[in-house]
Amino acid sequence: xxxxxxxxxxxxxRREIREKGFSEETPVFSLKKPVYEPMSYSSFxxxxxxxxxxxxxxxxxxPLRETRNPLKRSLxxxxxxxxxxxxxxxxxxxxxxxxxxxxxxxxxxxxxxxMISIYMREKDKxxxxxxxxxxxxxxxxx
Amino acid sequence: xLTSLAYGDAIGNETMAIxxxxxxxxxxxxIYAEAIDERIRVLGITGVIxxxxxxxxxxxxxxxxxxxxKWNLGVFEFGAKxxxxxxxxxxxxxxxxxxxxxxxxxxxxxxDLKQIAPKVKYCIAVSGFNRDDLLAxxxxxxxxxxxxxxxFEDYKTKASEKILEKYSQIKSTKILFTGRVASNKKIExxxxxxxxxxxxxxxxALLFLVGKxxxxxxxxxxxxxxxxxxxxxxxxxxxxxxxxxxAYYSVSDxxxxxxxxxxxxxxxxxxxxxxxxxxxxxxxxxxxxxxGAGFLLDNKNPLEAACVVNRVIRDLPLRERIIxxxxxxxxxxxxxxxxGQILDYLRKVxxx
Lengths: 142, 352
Hints:
The complex is a heterodimer of chains A (142) and B (352). Chain A has one domain. In chain A, 72% of the residues lie in helices and 0% in strands. Chain A contains six helices and no strands. In chain A, helix 2 (43-66) runs antiparallel to helix 3 (70-95), helix 3 runs antiparallel to helix 5 and helix 3 (70-95) runs antiparallel to helix 6. Chain B has 352 residues and is α/β, with parallel strands linked by helices. The chains are: A mainly alpha (142), B alpha/beta (352). At the A-B interface, helix 1, helix 3 and helix 5 of A face strand 2, helix 4, helix 7, helix 8 and helix 12 of B.
């Protein structure tokens, strides 16, 4: 490797700063809120999160139960399986004994919810396409 | 085997790279994790770790250790030979305080290190810094230092035309940092250095902060900080596709890293691959990974760091020397070199 005299360069830079009268103009970063908020794993918080996930999954499944149109049902089946695939890993983790006992943590509750919203955003285009197809089928029926 | 197989992070990428390499060499191999990203799960090459898994004494587990997890201890109960690959555990000081989940995870991980120290017979550390950390935690076995296996062929993928068109014609300086928005990466120091650079040397300069973020206190704090400066020139890309990451490397003029904790820091190697002069604060494994290349800073003074950035960009002979040194350093990370080191180590473990 070619030698680079780092100390000499830094010395030269410090001289340049003095000669040009440079001074720092950037305010110091100050974090008003903590990096991570302490989480309380009360059973209430856990149950609330689990029931939120239960609702999300049931809402997806409900239209499937309500329609008799075979094409709509198969399209919605795909949609349901797709959504369940996204939610299941997070659901499984929140259900795990260790999380409930707070002995070992793999996802925080807030991180789990963040993960869901990130997955949803990433799959957004595909979800929108499926929704459009379902809406078109509804229009055809009407 | 690992705690969380995420898509696109250093440990996830190394796990996939080792998997593919072993498959090519004819080994029967599989990946087990507690949490598996859906994009990897659908490939059908992974399974979830649980107590019902069964291994024989002829099996070998590469166990990636980077955080607290019950399998840090549990992996030794499976009856297989275990090669611990140590990626380092982020110090608790960067993870909030007692009561925060991330703090608890890393505290548990550090406790686990001390507990498993007497059990570990085979161990790879991805940097000398990591090896020293293991020694400090009581590891008495022979620790082999083998850098991460990086499939450089992937970097020949076509870069995003959209990003290239947007930025390649812009003449002003473009500074890059890639990495998750996490407090150990000290992105506020990158922003402060950039701001000094913009005010003193190039008013139209841009800062690309490429990496995933969550809406936690740190990210929101950084956004507010950027807004209080000239936020239009500070771009948080969030999680983007690989071809877009490649494009940001292609259009940038230098790579700036002010991280205070890294177990290896793949972005340094990526920057070197793209001939971006690296300016980095000398902490943790940064010096190991750069191996004499790049330009190390010994303090965090943003004005001084900004002047270094300016010098590295404008002083063409210096820039060329840095890039030449980086190209020399890159040879140590060649895929065939690291692959050879891993396979040699694996054969040694098989024979014992």
